[in-house]
Write a structure and sequence with these properties.
The complex is a heterodimer.
Chain A (H helix, E strand, L loop, with lengths): L4 E10 L2 E11 L4 E5 L6 H9 L6 E6 L2 E2 L10 E4 L11 H11 L4 H14 L15 H13 L5 E5 L7 H18 L2 E6 L2 H7 L2 E6 L2 E6 L1 H6 L4 H6 L4 E11 L2 E6 L4 E5 L10 E6 L5 E3 L10 E11 L6 E6 L5 E5 L14 E6 L5 E4 L4
Parallel strand pairs in A: 3-8, 3-9, 6-7, 7-8
Antiparallel strand pairs in A: 1-2, 1-4, 4-5, 9-10, 11-12, 11-14, 12-13, 14-20, 15-19, 16-17, 16-19, 17-18
Helix pairs in contact in A: 2-3, 2-4, 3-4, 4-5
Chain B lengths: L1 H34 L1 E5 L2 E4 L2 H8 L1 H35 L2 H12 L6 H12 L4 H8 L13 H25 L3 H9 L4 H29 L3 H6 L7 H11 L3 H26 L3 H5 L1
Antiparallel strand pairs in B: 1-2
Classes of the chains: A alpha+beta, B mainly alpha.
């Protein structure tokens, strides 16, 4: 199937610095594609090139197989939801949504019908005559999407549109956006620095750093099988060690960290040989906690330690465990089933994790 | 505590109240009274509308009055036409230091007095002036050309004098327009002119109106520029007021003229506000 959007070796340099380097990807029709990266990684630059506000220094952008490099932004079959939405404050909601249709020269009754339909679709019928500043943050969000969707673009670009909303509304809008996407059945390209937005909504996620794609995959792949140390550190949370590889046995490694812990890890096909220095990532939620040593006996990596801090955060609560042997601190997620509700500082605890859960990368790759 | 804060407020307001009463309210009341009296003999006056009647029945006065109004409107429109692209460039296209430098350039002429600026134009436009000399040197004309003392010269002077007062409010309102709103216009299929018409101008409307009001009032009440650059035909209403007060010593008629001018500017400003759907609070706030 012809991809809705394809970028081939896309490059953008500003003066001497490269903002986007040789990025290639294809987004199949109807997909929710996210570009996830820290601020300044070049994701906004990619989006602005696709929308047509920036000229690429190299490479090509194809929409439904046709290059749009020489097409001005007002003729491209893509529309963009801006970071601060950029609704027209001088117009009513209906005029906002109808703007693109008016510009396309559609007859008035048809515009009215389409605007009515769009408002119906975003669940806000009858607000057409209101002013922009009379709407709440979430309503504005939906209007901004409707304003683009009435034009039936091939691709809808969304530039961190949830950034300005408060936490509760943001959680709600994530689900809402996903629903709108399947309702309109349009290809969404979404950029964000918030990993939970990307993980929850996307079919495909590209993790970007320093102008390059580090990894492209589904949320699960990024989370469970990060391909680079940057992805392992950026997506989800992780305990991070540096160490030396002592032994290699297939994919399994034995390493000694700088703090002196000997642990088992997995290289998942990456080139790591005995003597190489490596970075080891273990997710707090991949570590099992137990009061009794026998419960963690089946894990390859076991530590007996003392709780030094309780970081209570509801479902995402953590504890810091200090290794009784060498004093290294490890962050561990605690299950909220009630078993550990009475856990207090200074308590003795056993933790363990399987070697497979310790992702190892050649050091210096991120 | 409350009494104290009251006193504080009162003290803070005192200079303003003194200013308003002593310099604006009292003189105007006095002027109104002067304009409503008629001299019937030496040191003998009676209250009547005779001065206003004179104004209405003398064609020269009425004609000058209307001409001043129309020319001021024209000067305002020209200033807006020139200032809008300039302001747009300063507010939206120029960045960083260029932006502040350009803004400063608009301000520089106002460091010298209006009199000196007007003399500058006279040096450029007079028969033996720079432009005339340049044209002769280029061989485009045979003899010296007089470019002073006509309506065009006067209009140039008026627009030049008012420029800054249009640029400042326009730059301020245009700067407050988010760039992404303009980009959104393009993104949704808008063309340059349609974005200007539907997005930029509606957004800048308060700035446009407040700039126009200031420039219009400045032009209407200008005395120096029309006198120095305008010709014998380009009589300005302020010149009539001046001559009634100073030359003719007819304060009664001069005061009546003054009130007609005040009425005129008020009516036109009110009409512009009504036409554009703006309010004074919105444009001046």
């Amino acid at each position: 199937m012809l991809p809705d959007l394809e970028c081939a070796n896309l490059t953008k340099t500003f003066d001497a610095t490269a903002a986007v380097r040789d990025v290639s990807f294809a987004v199949p029709p109807g997909a929710f594609f996210s570009i996830l990266g820290p601020s300044g990684c070049g994701k906004t630059t990619i989006m602005r090139m696709i929308a047509g506000f920036l000229e690429p220094s190299g490479g090509d952008i194809l929409i439904r197989g046709k290059s749009v490099l020489n097409v001005p932004p007002n003729r491209r079959p893509v529309n963009m939801v801006f970071q601060h939405l950029a609704l027209f404050p001088m117009m009513t909601i209906a005029e906002n949504i109808g703007y693109g249709l008016r510009r396309a020269g559609m007859p008035k009754p048809e515009i009215e019908r389409k605007v009515g339909e769009a408002l119906e679709r975003i669940g806000l019928p009858g607000i057409g005559n209101r002013k922009v500043d009379e709407l709440s943050g979430g309503q504005k969000q939906r209007v901004a999407i409707a304003r683009c969707m009435v034009l039936e673009p091939d691709v809808l670009l969304l530039d961190e549109p949830l950034g300005a909303l408060d936490l509760k509304l943001r959680e709600h809008m994530k689900i809402e956006l996903k629903k709108l996407q399947s309702a309109f059945n349009t290809t969404f390209v979404y950029i964000t620095h918030d990993q939970s937005e990307a993980l929850v909504m996307s079919d495909q996620i590209a993790v970007m750093n320093h102008g390059r794609f580090e990894q492209l995959g589904t949320a699960r792949e990024l989370y469970y099988r990060p391909e680079t140390a940057f992805v392992a550190g950026f997506v989800g949370e992780a305990n991070r060690w540096r160490g030396k590889v002592e032994r290699v046995n297939g994919d399994a490694l034995e390493l000694r960290t700088e703090t002196g812990i000997v642990m088992k890890g997995a290289r998942h096909g990456r080139a790591l040989n005995p003597g190489d220095s490596a970075e080891i990532f273990v997710r707090p939620e991949a570590i099992r906690v137990a009061r009794d040593e026998r419960e963690v006996a089946h894990f390859e990596n076991r530590i007996c330690g003392t709780v030094t801090s309780l970081l209570f955060n509801g479902a995402a609560s953590r504890i810091l465990v200090r290794d009784d042997g060498n004093g290294a601190e490890i962050e561990v997620a605690i299950p909220q089933s009630g078993d550990y509700a009475t856990l207090s500082r200074g308590a003795s605890i056993h933790i363990g994790w399987s070697g497979d859960q310790a992702n190892c990368f050649p050091a210096g790759s991120a | 505590m409350r009494a104290q804060s009251r006193l504080g407020l009162f003290l803070l307001l005192t200079p303003l109240l003194l200013w308003l009463t002593l310099l604006i309210v009292i003189p105007h009341i006095d002027m109104l009274l002067v304009s409503l009296r008629e001299r019937v003999g030496v040191g003998e006056y009676r209250t009547s509308l005779a001065n206003y009647l004179t104004f209405l029945t003398e064609p020269l006065y009425l004609w000058t009055f209307l001409r001043t109004a129309l020319m001021s409107v024209l000067a305002t429109a020209l200033t807006l036409l020139i200032a809008f692209p300039v302001s747009y460039y300063i507010a939206k296209i120029a960045k960083g230091r260029v932006q502040s430098a350009l803004f400063l350039l608009c301000l520089v002429p106002f460091w010298v007095s209006e009199l000196v600026r007007t003399f500058g134009w006279m040096i450029l436009l007079r028969e033996t002036g720079v432009f005339s000399g340049l044209l002769q040197w280029a061989g485009l004309v045979d003899g010296p050309v007089e470019m002073l003392y006509n309506d065009v010269a006067m209009m140039v002077g008026l627009v030049y004098t008012s420029m800054l007062f249009m640029v400042v409010p326009l730059v301020t309102t245009l700067e407050s327009l988010d760039d992404s709103v303009i980009e959104a216009g393009y993104d949704l299929g808008g063309s340059g002119p349609s974005i200007l018409r539907e997005i930029v101008i509606p957004h800048a409307m308060p700035g446009i109106v407040s700039g126009c009001i200031v420039v219009f009032m400045l032009s209407l009440g200008n005395y120096l520029t029309p006198t120095m650059l305008g010709g014998k035909e380009s009589l300005w209403f302020t010149e009539l007021i001046y001559s009634q007060f100073i030359v003719r010593f007819n304060w009664e008629l001069g005061a009546a003229f003054g009130f007609m001018l005040l009425l005129l500017s008020s009516v036109i400003v009110w009409a512009v506000l009504r036409l554009t759907g703006q309010t004074l609070e919105k444009t001046m706030g």
